[in-house]
Design goal:
4 domains; alpha+beta; Trefoil (Acidic Fibroblast Growth Factor, subunit A); 749 residues; 6-stranded antiparallel beta sheet
């Protein structure tokens, strides 16, 4: 009997039946039944625990304020940008659409009540079901690796009753979806490697199952790359064994390689591309987030001001334009007839970044001396020396050796001169990265850098905001980014600018003559500028990588104090609030790991320097035969390793790949980033326990197993108010009803 291949052994149906074979088949059937029954019961318990009282938690929790909002925008087909790949958000939107959500919920902030909870609870239930699947996946992973029902039950039970994991997987978040696909990938790989009939139906099923989960994990969050690395290492190790197997011909090896290439590379890649294709097709209507995205992106947003309009293709001298930074949210290069105050550089006219449309955003390029390479066609080209004049005040863009008002390691930028007449510090050189000298500048499309001709610094939006005297507008500086000292405080800065035309009906009702297209110049419809899938794909990834680089960093380059360092995560000393700021009358939900399970995991982590050498020594005879040329198994000597030792090794690999990279990741991190690593460590702990008790008598083994499960469940129930919402005074106070839970002084609850 088989249930999706969940049998512990396989027989040969071609062999003639005899009493001994019938007995073996009966044993296999019984084992398969136990596995099926166990995984179904534990999964049902896990789902019940996660759905319990979900209908009564009528408040926005943690990042539901973002992902619930994104789901509504998908349903309304509105354009938006998010750091993460789109598949997880698309699935959440699909859950909402299928359960009657119309996208009207505003998802204010954590702790706010839903306006209509009945419409959004379907998305919570959908995320909860996907997050619950980590329980059967952990069971099947451990069972496929160890063939031990006890180890599988322990592992899946630990995952089932982890208080923190339950909180993480019962809200409208990407994390329950990501965890589902990560452990779906790991389990699929384990089942694939334990399948005996090569190129059979079951073999192909698990191969494609693994590939689909890999693609979905990567398409939900880019940290899905960690499980891609895990399966990649597993695949390389398996192919290496096939390469050393004398029975494997070159043709057979090629078939194995191509099958894995299709299943584990092409399939995930198609899913990743498909997720973005759906995003571009669905989220295309204009909304208030348009102005936060690159100008070229706005040309593909339906009903935006730049959608399907004719504009002049190339930048020319003396035409009114706007300079907008495509990355930093400081808006347009702006100036107004107000000077910098005393103590903030020279008292010359301010040049700032302004996020709103205004005539004071208009500038025009003028050639300087012999700086224009070709004045006959009036085109501005890469390498030209220019003066940038402010249209409404007649001041030239200017910089000098006086410090900027906030970013004092850099030079001040001002408006100087009168009616276009200034001095040599008004001269800038046009630079386009990767372009040749003399190349033209395409409006909207080309990013230009203005480099001061004498100081060598670059016109830059620093990402800082001026004080009240600067009306809170963005600081503009001239930065010498090539000098490390001058690069300080430029974490959020960018020196690239897109050149935008002035649009009639949007920037102004009556287009001035200086802003009208030159009749002698080539025109282009904006529909042609970024309408291909690959152009959109490239644009959105530029934004993803830029935002990922600065996320969680202060303007001085330091990481936000909200970061939870990787070193402190296994200590389980922080309880993350899910329901916003503490309110006496509100239900408060906290994500805190199961104290006993996490404590045991911590002990195991500390013992790894001892456990790993002991495991190697215990298998030294097997290890010495790994390179034996007489080995005929397709996996070489690896198949002779103790199954618990091998399974523990794969769990440690998964833990290391999902945990150690965060030590080197320069971005803000929260508890949820580390939970996949914790699940791998939890499975390792379960395998380790089973390794030490497997040779005991059945009664003693059962007693120990039941005792462990009893303690696990008891502690979960004790801390369950954190999962389902506690109300009243903080439990670190002695008069609190929940003071008995105050086990650690750093648990701020």
């Amino acid at each position: 009997m088989e249930f999706l291949g969940f049998t512990t052994q396989k027989g040969d149906p071609k062999e003639k039946s005899n009493p001994k074979q019938n007995t073996e088949k009966s044993v296999k059937m019984l084992q398969s039944t136990k596995v099926t029954y166990s995984v179904c019961v534990i999964s049902a318990i896990a789902l019940a625990l996660r759905l319990h009282r979900l209908d009564s938690l009528n408040v926005i929790c943690w990042d539901e304020t973002h992902f619930g909002k994104f789901a509504g925008w998908y349903i309304n087909q509105s354009n938006f940008f998010d750091l993460h790949p789109p598949l997880g958000k698309e699935l959440i939107a699909g859950m909402g659409y299928l359960t009657g959500y119309d996208g009207s919920e505003r998802f204010h902030f954590p702790g706010y009540e839903f306006e209509n909870y009945d419409k959004v609870i379907g998305m919570r239930i959908g995320c909860t079901i996907l997050g619950m699947l980590v329980v059967p996946f952990s069971f099947l992973f451990v069972h496929a690796k160890t063939k031990s029902l006890t180890a599988a039950i322990l592992a899946s039970s630990f995952v089932t009753f982890d208080n923190g994991l339950i909180v993480l997987t019962r809200h409208i978040l990407l994390d329950p979806i990501l965890i589902c696909f990560i452990f779906g990938s790991a389990m699929g790989d384990a089942k694939f490697r334990s399948t005996n009939k090569v190129f059979g139906t079951e073999w192909w099923f698990w191969l494609l199952f693994t590939g689909i989960n890999l693609g979905c994990a990567l398409s939900t969050k880019h940290v899905g790359l960690f499980v891609v690395a895990y399966v990649g290492i597993s695949t390389i190790q398996e192919l290496w064994g096939l390469m050393g197997d004398k029975k494997t011909s070159l043709l057979q090896f090629t078939k194995h390689f191509l099958a894995r290439f299709v299943g584990l590379i092409l399939v995930p890649a198609m899913i990743y591309l498909g997720a973005f294709y759906i995003h571009f097709a669905v989220a295309h209507k204009s909304n208030y987030m348009d102005e936060t995205q690159q100008p070229i992106w706005r040309t593909i947003i339906t009903d935006s001001i730049l959608y399907k309009i004719n504009i002049q293709k190339y930048l020319t001298y003396n035409m009114d334009i706007k300079l907008e930074n495509p990355m930093v949210k400081s808006g347009y290069l702006h100036s107004h007839p107000h000077n910098y105050p005393s103590g903030y550089g020279i008292r010359q006219q301010m040049v700032t970044g302004y996020f709103h449309e205004d005539p004071n955003n208009y500038w025009f390029f003028k050639p300087w001396g012999n700086g224009a390479l070709n004045k006959d066609d009036n085109l501005v080209r890469n390498g030209d020396l220019i003066v940038l004049e402010h249209r409404t005040t007649g001041r030239n863009l200017h910089s000098h050796k006086f410090h900027a008002p906030i970013s004092t390691n850099h030079y001040q930028v001002t408006g100087y001169g009168w009616l276009g007449k200034g001095d040599a510090n008004d001269v800038w050189r046009v630079h386009v990265k990767g372009a040749k000298i003399g190349d033209t500048i395409e409006l909207l499309k080309t990013s230009v850098v203005l480099r001061h001709n004498f100081l060598g610094c670059e016109l830059t939006m620093s990402g800082q905001n001026l004080a009240y005297w600067g009306y809170g507008q963005g600081e503009v500086i001239c930065s010498n980014v090539q000098t490390p000292q001058r690069s300080k405080n430029l974490t959020h800065a960018s020196s690239e600018f897109n050149v935008l035309p002035v649009i009639q009906g949007y920037d102004t009702d009556n287009l001035p003559e200086t802003a009208k297209p030159d009749p002698n110049q080539e025109m282009i419809n904006t529909e042609e500028m970024a309408n291909s899938f690959w152009a959109k794909f490239k644009l959105i990834h530029e934004m993803i990588f830029y935002v990922g680089k600065i996320l969680g960093k202060e303007s001085n380059g330091e990481l936000s104090g909200l970061r939870q360092d990787a070193a402190t995560f296994p200590l389980n000393i922080y309880a993350q609030t899910y329901t916003g700021s503490f309110k006496l009358e509100s239900k408060m939900v906290y994500m805190l790991g199961h104290p006993v399970l996490w404590g045991v995991n911590l002990v195991v982590i500390f013992l790894l320097p001892v456990l790993i050498p002991l495991a190697i020594i215990s298998q030294r005879q097997v290890m010495s035969g790994l390179n034996d040329s007489s080995a005929e198994s397709s996996t070489g000597g690896w198949s002779l390793l103790d199954s618990h030792v091998s399974a523990g090794g794969w769990c440690l690999l998964g833990w290391a790949l999902h945990y150690l990279p965060f030590w080197m990741m320069p971005r803000v991190l929260y508890q949820h980033h580390y939970y996949p690593a914790n699940v791998f460590m939890t499975m390792f702990t379960a395998i380790l326990i089973d390794y030490f008790i497997r040779d005991l008598s059945p009664k003693v083994k059962s007693l120990i197993t039941l005792s462990i499960l009893f303690i696990t469940i008891t502690i979960f129930l004790l801390f369950s108010p954190l999962v389902y919402g506690l109300q009243g005074t903080r439990f670190q106070w002695e008069n609190s009803t929940y003071h008995y839970l105050h086990w650690h002084k750093k648990w701020d609850m």
